[in-house]
UniProtKB/TrEMBL annotation:
This is Glucosamine 6-phosphate N-acetyltransferase. It comes from Lottia gigantea. InterPro entries: Acyl_CoA_acyltransferase (IPR016181), GNAT_dom (IPR000182), GNPNAT1-like (IPR039143). Its EC number is 2.3.1.4. One of its GO terms (biological process) is UDP-N-acetylglucosamine biosynthetic process.
Length: 185
């Protein structure tokens, strides 16, 4: 689309040293070559029309988000430079977003005015699961986090996924708990 705007500068993805990834890939894929007819890139303003929100429904409840709401949220994220890194994998033949993962950067006063990263909203379309794409997205985020200044990276996940995430260097920390208050579904 002619007026597509990327959420962040894609050149930072070129700086990722994929030789330091945690995963083993058979067959070999990488952020530069994620697979046949696939392209890894930042979320763009045109991804509303490429099924980004439909993809997220495979992860959680999305609700009825209009194109206007999507663009408003996109613009608010873009207006927070360095705060949101949403990666998408696009099928270049169908122009459909088929996988996504988010790095949210939380700016702090602690740790020398450092930044903490959080992995959010990791999802691969059911039609593309088993092709190492979730693993690829996680490796990209774990390599991107220190590149953008994060002193640590964390995530919340369901119990059955703990072993998967530990392969990327995540670990449970003693005396740490995850609590939540929900104000709506």
């Amino acid at each position: 689309m002619e007026d597509d705007i990327s959420l962040f500068d894609a050149s930072i993805l070129e700086e990722i040293d994929f030789s330091k990834c945690h995963g083993e890939y058979k067959p070999a894929i990488s952020h530069k070559n994620p697979g046949s007819n696939l392209r890894l890139r930042p979320l763009s303003s045109g991804d509303f029309n490429r099924g980004f929100l439909k993809l997220l429904t495979q992860l959680t409840q999305v609700g009825e988000v209009s194109k206007k709401q999507f663009i408003e949220r996109f613009n608010s994220m873009k207006a927070s430079p360095g705060g949101y890194y949403i990666l998408v994998l696009e099928n270049t033949e169908t122009e459909e977003v088929i996988a996504s993962a988010t790095l949210v950067v939380e700016f702090k006063f602690i740790h020398n005015a450092g930044a903490r990263g959080r992995v959010e909203d990791v999802v691969v379309s059911k039609d593309y699961r088993g092709k190492q794409l979730g693993k690829l997205l996680l490796d990209c985020l774990t390599l991107l986090a220190p590149k953008v200044g994060c002193y640590k990276l964390s995530l919340e996940c369901k119990d059955p996924l703990v072993d998967f995430y530990t392969t990327f260097g995540f670990s449970k920390e003693a005396q740490q708990n995850y609590l939540v208050q929900r104000f709506w579904d």
